[in-house]
Specification:
By secondary structure, the protein is an alpha+beta fold. The strands form seven sheets. The protein has a three-stranded mixed beta sheet with strand order 1-4-5. A hairpin with a 2-residue loop joins β4 and β5. α1 crosses α2, α8 packs across α10 and α10 packs across α11. The radius of gyration is 45 Å and the shape is elongated. About 12% of the residues have low confidence. InterPro entries: DA1-like (IPR045218), DA1-like_dom (IPR022087), Znf_LIM (IPR001781). GO terms for molecular function: metal ion binding; ubiquitin binding. It holds the Pfam family DA1-like.
Length: 468
């Protein structure tokens, strides 16, 4: 304000000087009144100067804001990868910025700098959903950016059971279990929380899907249920197909051996009644009987009752021994391909007994039976694929009958993709079985048949009791 007071005094002095000049030829005016008039004039001039100064300050502020807007750069969002992007120091560019996406000039306004490039805000988009990324944190994978949720959906494993994203550990790792064949990922906790598995394909029951509860406590997924065989009568056509398969190998079973579908409890009790058995699987699914027993068999296809539970009817069947083999028992409620695999395995037990193969070691007997079951599966899967000739990719096929003699399965209609996949799973299960009796026995038997053929391998087993 001292500056303005000094200006006022100057204006006042000028006014006095002008007043003295004007007094020549004019009337005398009251000095005190004239002085007050010039003071008011000086004050008006001062206010005008203040207004001009204020306007200049406002213009300066607007200019500064405009420069700041031009130089504005939003700090890059944090990237939740191992390499977290930090804001780069801003240098006023000597040339135009070009957007990395649309390749046009960015110009004035907001823009982003990330991944060593500049972007219009609306051009910095998620690679998964193609929507702009506006969150403060996002994921970078290679040269692609993702929303956090989009990245999790696309890249992080989701549990097949609870459908949740599998949580990371405190160390940042994502522990999960994975089925070796189906590749389904699931939380490790489901291994111990009582989550049931399908008794056929071994897949875990999802929380949003209900498996069928069989009368003996097993659970069956709906896909396996589509081709499941539920009673003894329904299984007879498949049993005849297995017999034709053996006839095509010149290994006809001469005696009429009864075949029954039974519950798990009946199968376990029958196995305990056998004096000689080589069954070392975690669960027995089939049995070739050689003793006289009374076995309850499934006499009528079960009905699905409340709570997805089957209502079955059984009746006792007295098995009379007419030869070395009394009957073949198979667990009910399994898909057609798995039931056929079990039948082919047990039929080989019957063939060995009826053809004088005595005192074989468990590894040799169970191993060669698994080889025949595997051969039947291969023939079924190849026939379902529509092949007209037997492929030569495996020596096992050299022992198989021609396609015309084992094409009866096609009468059942076209096999679904899932059923074909299940067939591959059953083959895989035989191949990777870790048990010394079934797994090692199969691998040794398959190697022998691949090298020498089925006929020569069986001849060597009869003479030596071992694989060649």
């Amino acid at each position: 304000m001292d500056e303005f007071k000094e200006q006022e005094d100057i204006y006042y002095a000028i006014a006095l000087s002008l007043s003295e000049q004007d007094q020549k030829g004019k009337k005398s005016i009251d000095k005190e009144s004239q002085s007050e008039e010039y003071k008011q004039l000086a004050r008006a001039q001062t206010k005008e100067d203040e207004h001009i100064t204020k306007a200049q300050l406002e213009d300066d502020e607007q200019l500064a804001e405009a420069l700041q807007e031009i130089m504005y750069m939003e700090s890059p969002p944090h990237c939740e990868t191992e390499n977290i992007f930090q804001p780069h120091p801003f240098n006023f560019p000597s040339e135009y910025r070009i957007c990395a996406r649309c390749k046009t000039e960015i110009g004035r306004g907001e823009f982003l700098t990330c991944m060593d490039a500049d972007w219009h805000p609306e051009c910095f988009r998620c690679h998964a959903c193609n929507c702009p990324i506006t969150d403060s944190k996002f994921y970078i994978s290679g040269n692609r950016s993702y929303h956090k949720l989009c990245y999790r959906k696309q890249r992080l494993p989701r549990c097949e059971v609870c459908k949740n994203f599998i949580p990371a550990s405190s160390k940042g790792r994502i522990p999960y279990m994975e089925h070796p064949f189906w590749k389904n990922k699931y939380c490790p906790s489901h291994e111990h929380d009582g989550t049931p598995r399908c008794c056929s394909c071994e897949r875990m029951e999802p929380r949003d899907t209900r498996y069928l509860l069989l009368d003996d406590g097993r659970k069956l997924c709906l896909e396996c249920l589509n081709s499941a065989i539920m009673d003894t009568e329904e299984c007879q056509p498949l049993y005849l197909e297995i017999q034709e398969f053996y006839e095509g190998l010149n290994m006809k079973v001469e005696q009429q051996v009864p075949m029954l579908l039974v519950e798990r409890q009946a199968l376990n009790e029958a196995m305990e009644g056998e004096k000689h058995g080589h069954h070392h699987l975690s669960e027995t699914r089939g049995l070739c009987l050689s003793e006289v027993q009374t076995v309850p068999t499934i006499s009528r296809r079960p009905r699905i009752g409340a709570n997805h539970q089957l209502d079955i009817r059984t009746e006792p069947c007295r098995l009379i021994r007419r030869c070395e083999v009394t009957a073949i028992l198979v667990l009910y409620g399994l898909p057609r391909l798995l039931t056929g695999q079990i039948l082919a395995h047990e039929m080989m037990h019957a063939w060995l007994k009826l053809n004088g193969y005595r005192n074989l070691s468990p590894e040799v007997e169970e191993g060669i039976c698994q080889v025949l079951a595997y051969m039947w599966l291969e023939s079924e899967l190849y026939t379902a694929s529509g092949g007209d000739a037997v492929p030569s990719t495996s020596s096992l096929f050299s022992s198989l009958p021609s396609s015309s003699s084992f094409s009866t399965s096609l009468k059942m209609g076209k096999r679904s993709d899932f059923e074909k996949k299940c067939g591959d799973f059953f083959k895989h299960h035989i191949e990777v079985d870790a048990s010394p009796t079934y797994g090692d026995g199969f691998r040794r038997g398959r190697q022998a048949v691949d090298k020498y053929g089925l006929k020569s391998t069986l001849k060597h087993i009869r003479l030596t009791g071992s694989f060649p």
